[in-house]
Design brief:
This protein is of the alpha/beta class. It contains 3 helices and 7 strands. The strands form 2 sheets. Strands 5-4-3-7-6 form a 5-stranded mixed β-sheet. A two-stranded parallel sheet has the order 1-2. The radius of gyration is 14 Å and the shape is globular. It starts with 16 loop residues before the first strand and ends in a 5-residue tail after the last strand.
């Protein structure tokens, strides 16, 4: 697991966590998406590879995981958004549910409150986001 890799702009990548259950399902999702969207599937795979895997329960609290509601700020524009991180079939941007197979969704995965990460939009624009708050999934 390489956590010293550099993000866009040369900053170090933040340490992230993922539950064993989410990791198992997301590894399969990334592999299945590799033909259709190789860049995004590769990015999600890289994030999963560098994440610390934790068991469900108390150790799985306090970071963005599947089903979490996340308040974050786009540090480029200052815009604050609240979204839920979901699987592609559950995504509905009008309802604030973003897929983990989007650039911002994959970037949010595993972050804790106060952490920031650099990421690239589908058009290649460099962005930075900061997690302001996390509400645990309803099924937790």
């Amino acid at each position: 697991m390489d956590t010293t890799r550099k993000a866009a702009g040369g900053s170090s990548l933040p340490k992230i966590k993922v539950t064993a259950e989410d990791r198992e399902r997301l590894v399969g999702l990334a592999a299945a998406a590799m033909d259709r969207m190789p860049d995004l599937a590769g990015y999600l795979s890289d994030e999963l590879d560098r994440a610390q895997v934790v068991r469900a329960g108390r150790s799985a609290l306090g970071f963005v995981r599947m089903g979490s509601e996340v308040e974050f700020r786009d540090d480029t524009t200052g815009k604050v958004q609240v979204v839920s991180l979901v699987y592609p079939g559950e995504a509905d941007i009008g309802q604030g549910r973003i897929s983990v197979l989007t650039p911002v969704g994959a970037a949010l995965l595993g972050l804790s409150k106060g952490q920031s990460i650099d990421w690239a939009t589908r058009t290649g624009a460099a962005k930075r986001l900061t997690v302001l708050g996390i509400r645990e999934p309803a099924f937790a």
